Amino acid sequence: MTDHEDHREPVAVGSYSTEGEAEVAQAKLRAFGIEAALVDQVEGGVIQVEGEPGVIVEVPAADAQDAMRILTDEGDAGQ
Questions:
Q1: Which of 3, 11, 4, 2 is nearest to 60 (CA)?
Q2: Average pLDDT over every residue of 52-78
Q3: Contact, 8 vs 61, CB < 8 A?
Q4: What span, in angstroms and rounded, lies between the C-alpha atoms of 77 and 75?
Q5: What do you get for the CA distance between the two ends of the chain, in Å?
């Protein structure tokens, strides 16, 4: 993998209704050595409105496939 590939934009691997659900997914990924960031798409952190993506879990592009597999294998893929 080249340096350029290591610095690609983060990839969203899940979308969750609440920050708590997203934090559980983030903790699972970190347990497997994958750094994950939360991006709260709900303005002001209030209750999600239908159609809004909620809290997004993002990982480095190089880890995206592994992260999606981990979340799916755990039965906890984003909605």
A1: 11
A2: 84
A3: yes
A4: 6
A5: 30
- What is the H or E stretch that residue 16 is in? strand 11-16
The number of angstroms, rounded, from the C-alpha of 23 to the middle of its chain's C-alpha atoms is 9
Which of 2-11, 14-23, 66-75 is modeled with the greatest confidence? 14-23
Does pTM surpass 0.85? no
User: Where do the domains of the chain lie, and which CATH numbers do they carry?
Assistant: 3-73 (3.30.70.1530)
Nearest-angstrom CA–CA distance, 11 and 70: 15
Of the candidates 61, 72, 49, 50, the residue with the CA atom closest to the CA atom of residue 12:
61
